[in-house]
Each structure stands twice: as structure tokens, then as C-alpha cells.
Write a structure and sequence with these properties.
elongated; 6 strands; mainly beta; six-stranded antiparallel sheet; binds coenzyme A
């Protein structure tokens, strides 16, 4: 895998469907966030931090509908890093029994490394990582 990247997959189950019979967008965003969290975990290994939180989800685009029973295969890649933050591009390809795999959703997620302060609050901290 070039750079820092991670794969994550989910199957679309009945609970994930909206009233027009396709995958609910909010569910897709939750999975995008999880895919980003997976690559963040990898990117931050060894850093002196307590975790990372999502600061922003930008440029979410739902390009194709996704259907019950489809697999949604996510690829999350760290595309840039700052002092406490880093930017992740997530692509979600839907794979159905009767359709070719297709790019269903793209988004950019900004995560920030955090550390617990003496009061128990998580505050931003430098991660010291580059990509
Ligand atoms: C994330 C958090 C700790 C950041 O603390 P903060 O004091 O607000 O930090 P800043 O505004 O200085 O931003 C921190 C970094 O994020 C970047 N950033 C902030 N807002 C951004 C945005 N909308 N888009 C891109 N980058 C952004 C800043 O440029 C900075 O990057 P750098 O340190 O790499 O230069 C705080 O905002 C927070 O706790 N937010 C809630 C997080 C949360 O609950 N997420 C959902 C659950 S995971």
C-alpha cells in the first residue's frame, strides 16, 4: 500500500436503508468516519498521543445510489499532515451482485491528534508525523 492507507468494508443491511430504498446518507458518513479512523490509527502508531478526533468532514459527495445487499468497500488515505491535524481522503466503492463496482461516495476527513489534560479533557496535540 503506498503511503498510509487502510481498507474497510461493510455490507448494506435492512437497518441501513432510507425511505427511497437506498443506503441512508448518514449511515454512509458514519462508515466514512470509521474508515478514516482506521487509517488514523495506523498513521499515528508510536506517536505520543491519546487518540484522534474528527474535526471536519468536507466535500462529501454521494455519486451513485447503494442498494440493500451491496458491499461498500472503503479506501482511506492520508493525503497531508499538519502540526496537530491530518487530512484523509476516503473513497467508497459499492459492489453489488448484478452491477459492476462503482464509486459511490467520496469525502475528505480532517482529524486532530489529542491528549488528555489533567482535568480529563482531550485537547489538540502535535503528532510529529508526516506522510
Ligand atoms: C478537535 C479539537 C480538539 C481541536 O481543538 P481546537 O482548539 O479547536 O484546534 P484548532 O481550531 O486550532 O485546530 C486544530 C487543527 O485542525 C485544523 N483545522 C481546524 N478546523 C479545520 C477545518 N474546518 N478544516 C481543516 N482543518 C481544520 C487547524 O488548522 C489545526 O491544524 P494544525 O495544528 O495541523 O495546523 C476540538 O475542536 C474538538 O474537541 N472538537 C470536537 C471533536 C469531536 O467531538 N469530534 C467528533 C467525535 S470524534
Amino acid at each position: 500500500m503506498p503511503g498510509f492507507s487502510a481498507k474497510y468494508s461493510q455490507m448494506v443491511m435492512p437497518d441501513h436503508i432510507n425511505i427511497v430504498g437506498t443506503l441512508f446518507g448518514g449511515q454512509m458518513i458514519a462508515w466514512v468516519d470509521l474508515a478514516a479512523a482506521k487509517v488514523a490509527f495506523r498513521f499515528l502508531k508510536g506517536a505520543d498521543i491519546d487518540g484522534a478526533v474528527t474535526r471536519a468532514i468536507d466535500k462529501v459527495e454521494f455519486k451513485e445510489p447503494v442498494y440493500l445487499g451491496d458491499w461498500v468497500n472503503f479506501t482511506a488515505t492520508v493525503i497531508s499532515s499538519g502540526s496537530t491535524s491530518f487530512r484523509i481522503e476516503v473513497e467508497a466503492h459499492a459492489e453489488g451482485r448484478h452491477m459492476d463496482p462503482r464509486l459511490a461516495c467520496v469525502a475528505t476527513v480532517v482529524m486532530v491528534a489529542v491528549k488528555k489534560d489533567p482535568d480529563g479533557n482531550y485537547i489538540k496535540t502535535t503528532h510529529g508525523k508526516t506522510c
